[in-house]
Amino acid sequence: MKNTFWILLFFGLLGASGVHAQQQKYSVVAYVDADAIVKEMPEYKEAKTKLEAYQKQQVGSVDKDTKEIAVYYQEVMKKVEEGTLTPKDQAAAEAKLQEMQELLQQKQLTVNESLVRKEKEYTKSMYERFEKAIKKVAIDNKYDYIIESRFLLHSANTAIDATDKLKKELGL
């Protein structure tokens, strides 16, 4: 009786695992060249133009401050060479130069942070549209996963290039 129980249990588990294996399906994986698609989107071109203009403006401001520091430094050095600066005035000029440098570094950091914020602001709607289109392509074509092609290390002939489908969905 004890052996019969174990035999029935063994065959029951074996049968259940066989049914499970038959029901198991493979995931459908597609890939897209997201960089190429994004660069074709009109929103990308607009965002890039706006960001370049903003960057030019911000960098111009930093360059102006850099030139002012260079001019002040040259003036101080000229006075030092001529011997027209007292040690007290020279120490004050050095302190002012140090302060100007620190302010410039802070401004450069602020400009960089500002550029990142502006890039996010300018591209937010584009990436939302892109993500919505990816989801729709995945659902419409019954893809379990859509990955970026540059992260695809190997593909047996089962992965599907969905780049054209995504472009069509985005109207490109």
Structure description:
The protein is built from 5 helices and 3 strands. By secondary structure, it is mostly helical. The protein is 77% helix and 6% strand. The chain has one domain: Skp domain (Protein Binding, DinI Protein, Chain A). The N terminus is likely disordered. A 3-stranded parallel β-sheet has the order 2-1-3, with helices on one face. α3 runs antiparallel to α4 and α4 packs across α5.
Helical residues, percent: over 70%
**What's the number of extended β-strand segments?**
3
In CATH, the architecture is 2-Layer Sandwich
Overall average pLDDT: 85
The number of helical runs is: 5
- The CATH superfamily is Skp domain
Structural class: mainly alpha
Outline the fold blueprint.
Blueprint: H1 2-23, E1 29-32, H2 34-40, H3 42-82, H4 87-141, E2 145-148, E3 160-161, H5 163-170
Parallel strand pairs: 1-2, 1-3
Helix pairs in contact: 3-4, 4-5
